[in-house]
Specification:
Layout lengths: L5 E5 L5 H6 L9 E5 L10 E5 L6 E5 H7 L10 H16 L1
Antiparallel strand pairs: 1-2, 3-4
């Protein structure tokens, strides 16, 4: 689960079209405050996430968070928590 609600994003020539398509009035080299839902999935900006297994808070890039929750929508912060995630998802897949 993501705790960060909004994030400050620097606008450049690589992401200006994304934010213009979302309806933001932006120019290059400006910074805007946006909700996390509008952030690009491959963004490397840091967010605060809470582990779904142990409730530990961790600072992680948004890109890595999305990769972690891609299949089963569960975020795990460590190897020990990921083992619990594997047990849970195997129960779902195989009964």
């Amino acid at each position: 689960m993501i705790l960060t609600n909004e994030i400050l994003v620097g606008i450049n020539y690589l992401n200006i079209n994304h934010y213009k398509n979302l309806g933001y009035n932006v120019k290059c080299n400006n910074k805007i405050l946006i909700p996390i839902e509008d952030l690009q999935l491959e963004s490397n900006l840091k967010i605060i996430a809470v582990c779904d297994v142990c409730n530990n808070e961790k600072i992680i890039s948004y890109q890595k968070y999305n990769k972690n929750i891609k299949k089963y929508n569960l975020y795990t912060c460590s190897v020990l928590c990921s083992q619990q995630k594997i047990k849970y998802t195997n129960k779902i897949k195989y009964g």
